[in-house]
């Protein structure tokens, strides 16, 4: 019974991630935001240090999507998901690729961690952390790494 | 009863973080590594994209500690801890400061996420993600941000 519940939870979290990827590729801002709890705390790949609350976190998504042609390429590679009764987290290396509105092609691998809570029977992302590594001596971001 | 268990779990995780901070400040590599599960997957602030396993993750710690004079300043600011029965995660903005062996003073705020599992009654960190934001247009890391 417990194992069945866990299998269902894993299927639900994988579906949440799949739906989020679909929304990202389509630049569907409503779909992207739908997985986040209203009080999500996000450490995004770009400044500032953090966004507190889904309302504040919407703006950088609008800006990012505005700079890309549609569709955007997005892949969540082999997410490792750790699931408890009502708390879970997932980490993966994600690949984002696409063409900017000025025609420049971009491709990037980033590290992606999400923390989730099951709230009223529904899994939601309450914490997100996306980043690339940096060279602390030169101050350069490592934007060309591959898994 | 469940609430009591949760309070105990929170106290244990806070103690784990406190002990880790103490070890970091003292450059106590054994103490730092003691909180990580053997199969920890770490997304460190510096390249590569990830470290898989505590054995591989020890080396960058040795290198980082070798570049700092003792003690190092380290603060975990107001960790937000989400705790389930045997799965938990925590996120916080951490401040690392110190003097490099060449005499240069450094100070940096980073974003820190840890995922934990309760294994045989003991909480261990199975996933860690540390980063600073980057400017994707210039490729520069944002090393001077403050909360």
Topology:
Two copies of one chain form a homodimer.
Chain A: H1 2-25, H2 29-33, E1 36-43, E2 51-52, H3 54-66, E3 73-83, E4 87-99, E5 105-119, E6 122-131, E7 134-135, E8 140-141
Parallel strand pairs in A: 1-6
Antiparallel strand pairs in A: 1-2, 3-4, 4-5, 5-6, 7-8
Q: Count the strands of chain A?
A: 8
Helix fraction bin of chain A: 25-40%
What's the CATH class label of chain A? Alpha Beta
Q: Could you report the average pLDDT of chain A, rounded to the nearest whole number?
A: 95
As an assembly, this protein is homodimer
How far apart, in Å, are the first and last alpha carbons of chain A? 37 Å
Shape of chain A: globular
Strand arrangement, largest sheet of chain A? Answer: 2-1-6-5-4-3
CATH architecture of chain A: Roll
Share in β-strands of chain A? 35-45%
Query: Largest chain-chain contact?
Result: A-B, 43 and 43 residues
Instruction: Classify the fold: give the CATH topology of chain A.
Output: Nuclear Transport Factor 2, Chain: A
Low-confidence stretches of chain A: none
Individual helix count of chain A:
3
The description of the largest β-sheet of chain A is: 6 strands, mixed
SSE string of chain A, helices as H and strands as E: HHEEHEEEEEE
SS class of chain A: alpha+beta
Radius of gyration of chain A (Å): 16 Å
Taken together, the total number of domains of chain A comes to: 1
